[in-house]
Amino acid sequence: MKFEIGQKDFLLNGKPFKIISGAVHYFRIVPEYWHKTLYNLKAMGCNTVETYIAWNLHQPKPNEFNFNGRADLVKFLQIAQELGLYVILRPTPYICAEWEFGGLPAWLLTIPNIHLRQNDPIFLEQVDHYFSKLLSMVTPYQITEGGNILMMQIENEYGSFGNDKSYLRAIRSLMQKYAVNVPLFTSDGAWQNALEAGALIEDDILPTGNFGSRSNENLDELQRYFDNHQKSYPLMCMEFWDGWFNRWKEPVITREPRDLVDCVKALLDRASINFYMFQGGTNFGFWNGCSARLDTDLPQVTSYDYDAPVREWGEPSEKYYLLQQLLATYPDASEINEPILPEIVAYPTLSLQNEVSLFSTLERISKYSESPITQTMEDLGHYYGYVLYRAKPKVYSDEIKLRIYQCRDRVQVFNDYQKVATQYQHEIGHEIMLKTPNDEFQLDLLVENMGRVNYGGKLLSPTQRKGIAAGVVLDLHFHTGWQQYAIDFEKLDKIDFSSASDPQTPSFYEFNLTLDQEPKDTFIDTSELGKGVILVNGENLGRYWNEGPTCYLYLPAPLLHKGDNKIIIFETEGIRPETLKFSDRPIYKQLDSKNL
């Protein structure tokens, strides 16, 4: 097989070929469902699958790599090949994707003088180390080597971040160093400034556009960019946004299916397409990203449903069937078939079995450290989730003023185990009065990292260092002498549920789901909970928050098994769940929906 970028068309074995692709992020779907997802992609009419590669997933620590479970990229590529799908691979250091820190590993923030996404030897050294491991695994699947990867991306929407062409060329050189030999491309917003800043058209690298509406207008802009540089390439929308992502406290965003199909037809009559997303999936664990704002950043919800043609839980939507009808009219589309449908049940309500206060079992599930001043999560080597900061000041008055400086993202303040206040982003730094009757007291600060930004200039902001950066002021002085407990959610099997419980404090609650048949997909109803995370058999399903709009966590059947299944809720808001409810459909808070 031979794939080329012609002057007007993509060429497959010398013949014009329209790429009809859909985005599937392997890391947002359990591996047991990759085959079903990719089968449904092909059954809709797509001939190609596109995926980002998340650096922070694959290199969680500087000298530690992960290619297992949801990180088993090679298995994903193999399944695509077995199904006869081509692949567009985006192995760039930065991916955006509404993913934690845009895919950049948080440990990069501990490296002195590093400049992210720039032609900086310190940053490029880390990219080189990563590529040396990653690319050796994927290059055997290039179409030039008998595989199914058609092309790869150099950088992602770089024109919305910088214009350092020397950096783009450095990334290209690293890819070539590790035997990437398929055609390369860049993708940017389809306006002239973004394309001029982020593309490498002068080096004959294919520029593509990202947009989700006004197809002809955006394609005209992309063509104008080609014409301005006296170049001729096939037109392609690398991200055609068929829906949108959601953030906490904001209404669900949807897109009218017929409007989508009309825009897709206008695009396909002139260009190739990659549907972003085909199936969005789930931000399991602490992997959700965050939208940058001037003051208060806006974290994304756990669901990455995206209002895509296939929903988070694998159910084809109206968009899917309408697109099937449209794609069937194009000769390069795959054969249309009936999709595989999910099986979803609502399990019986469970009763609470065990409970314990975080404070009672803290030492058993945390990594402990001491320091004169507070350390950030990055400095503690604990990049995601929660850290509890503890001090035992001696005071000489009935009350004392507390202020916390440079803390991200949300902090709960406890005075001798009694919650005094919760502060979130713009509130942090405001004065809190503590009752302290002339004696030593215990001050506990539970800080949650709610997700680093995934887009824009704030990638370089000090606000992306989580935990308490500057320190804690009591009266008018910074307090010295801190104990730090980095809560490790992989140690929850060590929880001592025989210790004291106190529902008014952050607590763990245990339930048991016993199944005598093969498991089915379900949803955990979080509408009566406050804020926290839920783990099933040790797997972190992600965050919930009663602020909405989502009031559920999707629980795929492969995370369950016949027999007993342990479900642990970490609830931070003082709400004691006496029961745990399930649903056979997603649950949303009644906020006004928003259409694109």
UniProtKB/TrEMBL annotation:
<dbReference type="InterPro" id="IPR008979">
    <property type="entry name" value="Galactose-bd-like_sf"/>
</dbReference>
<feature type="domain" description="Glycoside hydrolase 35 catalytic">
    <location>
        <begin position="10"/>
        <end position="329"/>
    </location>
</feature>
<dbReference type="Pfam" id="PF01301">
    <property type="entry name" value="Glyco_hydro_35"/>
</dbReference>
<dbReference type="Pfam" id="PF21467">
    <property type="entry name" value="BetaGal_gal-bd"/>
</dbReference>
<keyword id="KW-0326">Glycosidase</keyword>
<feature type="active site" description="Proton donor">
    <location>
        <position position="157"/>
    </location>
</feature>
<dbReference type="InterPro" id="IPR048913">
    <property type="entry name" value="BetaGal_gal-bd"/>
</dbReference>
<dbReference type="GO" id="GO:0004565">
    <property type="term" value="F:beta-galactosidase activity"/>
</dbReference>
<dbReference type="Pfam" id="PF21317">
    <property type="entry name" value="BetaGal_ABD_1"/>
</dbReference>
<dbReference type="InterPro" id="IPR031330">
    <property type="entry name" value="Gly_Hdrlase_35_cat"/>
</dbReference>
<dbReference type="InterPro" id="IPR001944">
    <property type="entry name" value="Glycoside_Hdrlase_35"/>
</dbReference>
<protein>
    <submittedName>
        <fullName>Beta-galactosidase</fullName>
    </submittedName>
</protein>
<feature type="domain" description="Beta-galactosidase 1-like first all-beta">
    <location>
        <begin position="375"/>
        <end position="487"/>
    </location>
</feature>
<keyword id="KW-0378">Hydrolase</keyword>
<dbReference type="GO" id="GO:0005975">
    <property type="term" value="P:carbohydrate metabolic process"/>
</dbReference>
<comment type="similarity">
    <text>Belongs to the glycosyl hydrolase 35 family.</text>
</comment>
<dbReference type="InterPro" id="IPR048912">
    <property type="entry name" value="BetaGal1-like_ABD1"/>
</dbReference>
<dbReference type="InterPro" id="IPR017853">
    <property type="entry name" value="GH"/>
</dbReference>
<feature type="domain" description="Beta-galactosidase galactose-binding">
    <location>
        <begin position="506"/>
        <end position="565"/>
    </location>
</feature>
<dbReference type="InterPro" id="IPR026283">
    <property type="entry name" value="B-gal_1-like"/>
</dbReference>
<feature type="active site" description="Nucleophile">
    <location>
        <position position="239"/>
    </location>
</feature>
